[in-house]
Write a sequence for this structure.
């Protein structure tokens, strides 16, 4: 159930029943050192297309702490820890799925990841199309209750949203703008707290983003979620987000609540309410009820 108020004050509402998503993952383990997986997703689009969401080969040399991931996968930029059905605005801004090579090294409390890939967005006047995208992430598990992380991407315009039709206007930008993220997770008693900040580290040129209205925008998002464990895999959680320079693509304010509980065998019921406010004065209220089947 969705109710939307446009910037001009016009109200529209809609409701629907649908199979929102079907996901199938196939795993194959050739040995302790080599494995592979592929994830196929149908998201209820009008064309009924099934997409390959992920297809990877994973190599883990024994006793080295190293892991190599080759193929189509999310590169290590942003943590996006969430208990909600609906993607956070951090995901909208920073989630980046690429054909990449990612190396990870874990030692003690630290995990370091680095990726190389050929980004979707090129600089204006750049004729060559090369593997020139870089992303890196450091995660620290300080103790059983506290973890922190930070990541960097050479061009945040390569994210799925900013590289798409809602983002880069014309497919090129004058100069690449890097992106930065930082996150912290803390658990105590039955609570889990997650906070993350994601930002472009500089402004894009005016008019480079389809949503910038001819202004020089520096998109950024802060996300905070609090989750309370009700026991037996049931929980309730709240979300607050603030954003800047997002037009009608990345929200200025988001408020959400979700309740999740298992029932019957393999089934989970979820009820989620989210209010989204954009800097253009567009507002949206959305209520989702979902039954999820895991097997």
């Amino acid at each position: 159930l969705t109710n939307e108020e446009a910037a001009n004050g016009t109200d529209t509402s809609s409701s629907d029943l649908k199979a929102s998503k079907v996901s199938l993952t196939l795993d194959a383990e050739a040995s302790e050192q080599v494995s592979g997986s592929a994830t196929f997703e149908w998201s209820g689009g009008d064309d009924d297309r099934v997409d390959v969401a992920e297809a990877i080969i994973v190599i883990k040399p024994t006793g080295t702490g190293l892991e190599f991931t080759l193929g189509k996968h999310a590169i290590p930029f942003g943590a996006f820890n969430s208990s909600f059905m609906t993607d956070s605005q951090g995901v909208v801004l920073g989630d980046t799925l690429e054909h990449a090579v990612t190396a990870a090294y874990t030692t003690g409390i630290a995990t370091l990841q680095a990726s190389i890939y050929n980004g979707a967005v090129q600089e204006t006047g750049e004729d060559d199309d090369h593997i020139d995208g870089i992303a890196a992430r450091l995660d620290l598990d300080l103790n059983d209750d506290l973890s922190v992380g930070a990541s960097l991407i050479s061009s945040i315009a390569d994210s799925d949203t900013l590289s798409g039709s809602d983002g880069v206007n014309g497919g090129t930008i004058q100069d690449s703008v890097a992106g930065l993220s930082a996150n912290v997770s803390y658990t105590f008693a039955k609570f889990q707290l997650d906070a993350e900040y994601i930002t472009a580290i500089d402004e894009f040129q005016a008019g480079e983003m389809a949503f910038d209205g001819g202004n020089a925008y520096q998109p950024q998002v802060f996300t905070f979620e609090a989750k309370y464990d009700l026991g037996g895999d049931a929980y309730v959680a709240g979300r607050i987000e603030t954003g800047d320079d997002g037009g009608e693509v990345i929200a200025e304010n988001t408020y959400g609540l979700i309740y999740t509980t298992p029932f019957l065998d393999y089934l989970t019921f979820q009820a989620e309410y989210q209010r989204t406010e954009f800097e253009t004065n567009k507002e949206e209220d959305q209520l989702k009820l979902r039954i999820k089947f895991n097997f």
